[in-house]
Design brief:
92 residues; alpha+beta; 3-stranded antiparallel beta sheet; 1 helix
């Protein structure tokens, strides 16, 4: 039995634009942009590119697409870290 990652995308499922914010000395936060489900890849990509251009100078905000497949999202190890900072603390 192999543990292959499913890479097929059903374009009929819809898409979310996810906003990730990382502020100094605080955990990353994730939110769905405008709480909106985009019905097609074209409109989601258009908004994603516009948001990236508008926030090009802001390093603390990142946008990416998430397929809305009708099943619960699986948490990654990064999210499961319980808010621990991924940056090393500087000893003073």
């Amino acid at each position: 039995m192999s543990n292959k990652i499913k890479t097929e995308i059903n374009l009929d499922d819809g898409f979310f634009v996810v906003e990730q914010r990382k502020w100094y000395n605080s955990p990353k936060s994730f939110s769905i942009y405008k709480n909106k489900l985009y019905p097609d890849l074209t409109s989601a990509t258009r908004d994603l590119l516009a948001l990236e251009q508008l926030n090009d100078d802001k390093k603390e905000v990142v946008y990416f697409l998430q397929v809305a497949s009708g099943r619960p999202l699986e948490l990654t190890d990064e999210v499961k870290s319980n808010g621990k900072s991924d940056e090393e603390e500087i000893p003073f």
